[in-house]
Amino acid sequence: MNFFILCENLQLYSAKRLVEEASKLGIDTTFINPYRYHLNLLPTSGMRKDTHCGDLVFHRTTGIRFDDFDLAISFDMEQRGAKVVNSPSKLLKFRDKQLQTVFLHNQQIKHIPSFSFRGPPQNEHYEQINEYMKSLSLPNGRQSFVVKTIRGNQGIGVNLINGLESLKSLLETFHALRDQQFIIQPYLRSPEEYRLLIVKGEIMGIVKKDTSDDTFRNNAKRNTNAKYLSSSSLSKEIVDLAFKVYNSIDCFYAGIDILVSDGKLFVLELNMVPGFMQLEELSGINIAKELLVRGL
Fold it and tell me: pTM of the predicted model, to two decimals?
C-alpha cells in the first residue's frame, strides 16, 4: 500500500502532519502537486485499471482556483483502484458554496439564507432581499450583507457590505465585469460559532470560535481566541444538526461550521478538505494519525 497526498504546498500544516504521521507508521508517501502534473490518457499509455489497487490518497486541495484538474487526477486514481479521501465526486459536489447551499436547502437543513442570480440586477431581486431582511428584526433596522465568492478558503472572497445601496453598487459592478460567481447572505451577528470535525461517523473534536472581537471572518487563521470543547459540552441540537449534515453528504470526514444567532441554529458552511491545525493545537489530539489510521 502506498500513500499519496495531493496538495499544492507540502509545507502547509495539515499536509506536513499527514506526511509526518505516515512516516511514523512506516508508510511511504508520494507528494503530487496537481497543478504541476499531467494525465497520460493516451491509448498507448499501457495503464492497467488496478495500477493503484489498495493505495490511499488524501485529496488536500480546496478548489479555490476554479480549476478542477485536481479532481480529474483523483478520479483517475480512484478508477484505477485507489481509495481517495474524500471521494472526488463528493468534492466536486460540495467545494462550491452555491451548490452547498442548494443541497442544504433541498435537504431542509437549517442554513444561512442565501440568494444568487445571473444577469442584470433587477428591482425584484432587491425587493426579495429587502423583505427578508425586514423579517429578521435587526437592531435599528440595520441591513448588512455578506457577499461570498462561490469558491474560497480562509476567509478569502468574503466581503461585508453595509446597507442596501452599497449592495446594489457592488452587484452592478460584478455584472458589468461579467463576474457573478457569488452568493449573498444576511450578516447575522453570532455570539456562538462552532467547527465540528467529524471523521468516519465520530466527532474528533470541536472548536468554539471567539466572536467577541467584531470580526465577520471567523476561520481558524484569523480567529486566535478559540477554545477546544468536548462533544458532551455541546447542546444535543447542535450535535444533531452536525450529524444531519454529515450523514446526508456521506463522506469520510468533514468540517462543519454551525453558528447560533438569536437562539437559532444555522449551518454556516461544510468543508470537505478541512484544516486541523487549530484543533490539534487546542486539544492535543493527534488528528493526522487518526485520519490515516481510520482511512486505511
Answer: 0.90
